[in-house]
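Appendix B. Raw example, untouched.
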Amino acid sequence: MRYKRIAITCYGGPEELRVVEAERPLPQEGKVRVRVLVAGVSLPNRLTR
């Protein structure tokens, strides 16, 4: 199964953000997968971008 994520590829504005699609890895033994329905972006995240 595949999933999408947003990747920061280089410094710049929103035009530098890229949607990356990859295979969803299976959880390792003793680990769980958590479904994220909503995620936020904080000031440090914005400054990093």
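End of appendix B.
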